[in-house]
Amino acid sequence: MSHLQCLTMATALILLQALSLVSCSILSRADRITRLPGQPRVGFQQYSGYVTIDDKKQRALFYYLAEAETKPISKPLVLWLNGGPGCSSLGVGAFSENGPFRPKGSVLVRNLHSWNQEANMLYLETPVGVGFSYATESSSYEGVNDKITAKDNLVFLQKWFLKFPQYLNRSLFITGESYAGHYVPQLAQLMIQYNKKHNLFNLKGIAIGNPVMEFATDFNSRAEYFWSHGLISDPTYKMFTSYCNYSRYVSEYYRGSVSSMCTKVMSQVSIETSRFVDKYDVTLDVCIPSVLSQSKVVNPRPQQVGETVDVCVEDETVNYLNRRDVQKALHARLVGTRKWAVCSNVLDYEVLDVEVPTINIVGSLVKAGVPVLVYSGDQDSVIPLTGSRTLVKRLAEELGLRTTVPYRVWFAGQQVGGWTQVYGNTLAFATVRGAAHEVPFSQPARALVLFKAFLGGRPLPEEF
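User: That's the sequence. What structure does it adopt?
Assistant: Structure tokens below.
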């Protein structure tokens, strides 16, 4: 984007902001959802549609906005990004985790712990090629990487504010999970840089759940997690930490040259952990639908010849979002694919970007005064809490931040919701007790308590 284009956009945003004091943007009216099929009656507004981020190549990102249940004009705007890379924030975040509804058969049921109780929730299917987001040229799905994704997300927000200028000065938070440990900090960094010339984004904080922030630390904490939870034996733990750790295996796997040693170690790990235990929630004794296995990069699991994926239960979200009447209500369309999918089948993402650390970017955000919350579901072995806690503690030490809230329990209702520690006024870590990789799905009530405290800039409750 040229300097002239930036000025033009900034001027347009200022003008539209003034107009929004009188009425909502005309541009957003076409995106208003009258009612989703099977939806119960609600008192809040919903919008969904496209923002074209590249007119020349016809690349467009799909969004879904669920305004706050009450007093939306006084509530902050929260952008939610799922990971993958290449998995849907609409299907996973909105319809399976913290959105207002969940599909059940042919209807939608209310999520009693929806995050739009506290904020206006904006879900973005990113990058192009994910979910309903599309490009008219298939070449746009090739060679996509973190840098491209961050820039596209920035352009999306700039243009989205043209549709919704009433949100321009609103407090803005960015949240997400898993590979969004890359997406969220990288986008926040670009927003801060953009604000130096054009004060557009009122960024108030970021929160990332079970995030990939530093390849080796995050991935290699898996061995200790497996061992400490009884999933692998002592000899296998020794092999997993001495001969081939998980970061080495993933690195070799994505370079197409897995060594015989790593093959041997991973084979033994797989045998002992068992394919009947879900790595995203090691305590769950029932099958999990495919919608929860949102990450191809952080948990590569190549299928054997003839193997089929048993998702055990009907994937309600996939069925719902592939209905024609639902797509019409969402103002969505399928381009270059015949079926909406939880994780993209067309996107060719630069998977080796997972090895580029983002913990340093998180540190730059903290130094810039942006509050950061890192939270971990404690039943997730894919990105275990031990790795995240280590990284946050190390970052606090590097930044010279003193502990302001000592490591302690926090409460949700009359039960322990997890543990937390806060460094300075801007860096916090929290675990969510009994939660899996997707915290709002597995522990919705506790996730809502966490979210509310984060938005309010308050420590988590220390009593019930």
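The two ends are 51 Å apart (CA to CA).
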